[in-house]
Amino acid sequence: MGLLDFLTGKSKAAPAPAGATETTAAPAEELKKEIARHGLDASKIDVKVDGGKVTLGGAAPNDG
Question: How far apart are CA 41 and CA 61, in angstroms?
Answer without folding.
Answer: 7
